[in-house]
Amino acid sequence: MTVSTLNPNSNLKQVWPADMNPADMTPEQMALTALRHEIDLIDDQILELFERRLAIAASVGKAKDAPHGPHTKLRPDREQTVLGRMLGQCQPENAEAVAGLWREIVGWGLARQGTLQVQVWAPNDPTRAFDGARQRFGMAADIRMVRDPQAALAFAAEGHGVAVLAVNTDDAWWVGLRREWSSLSVFDGFGLGGGQPTALAVGKIDPPALPTGRRVVVAAGGDAGDGGGARRWGLATDHGWTLALTDADLAPGEVEGCVGAIG
Ligand SMILES: O=C(O)C(=O)C[C@]1(C(=O)O)C=C[C@@H](O)C=C1
């Protein structure tokens, strides 16, 4: 008897391979087949939900238009909330997998609103910066290495995308965040892992959409963001200017030299 062919009208699904007779299968093969069937059913649900989420993300893109003029569609504060919610619910042993997967999911959501262009400048350690950008923005982003940090800042200021720029270099591009590039904000840092960021992500981000976390300050002298005895981490200095992180509660803007935040 051929048992592998189901009546096409049956709503029973054939879970064993078409060329296999279950009577010939070992218990181990049966167990494996049943588990794979379970995975197939879960994949069907994930696919349906993922495609629904993509469609909603496309609608969100149309619904949100920054009140402060044209900015990138990227909303670091919302991404922080989405990831935080998932990490708060998952099993601790799955945290890394969940964080990576949701970065991808959100990256594809953003891509439904237009491909995110990322320009990376990191002359000393390009691979690490590129990998950091890929992890942060996901496979949907169009990520390119560039040779000129000023060109990358101009690209971001024109609203074409975001820049990821190394800080451990001789080029103090970050001083320009207060001067020429005041429409840009730092919204993330890479290479943290307990240590200091070695590259910063900069974009034309709607100020209320910055993440909550340590503020990034560019200030004259060595006391950037020190007010009130807040903790402060110096990242770089140049000709009397300091780039630092602080946990002082500063608002982005020219007065205190706050040029963004890192979640
Ligand atoms: O909430 C938004 O503004 C969205 O565009 C949706 C979404 C997401 O997929 O969750 C995508 C991109 C944004 O950077 C933040 C979140």
Automatic annotation (TrEMBL):
Gene3D superfamilies: Chorismate mutase (1.20.59.10)
Protein name, per record: chorismate mutase
Enzyme Commission (EC) number: 5.4.99.5
Pfam families: CM_2
Domain Chorismate mutase: 26-117
Signal peptide: none
Enzyme class: isomerase
MF terms in GO: chorismate mutase activity
GO biological-process terms attached to the record: chorismate metabolic process
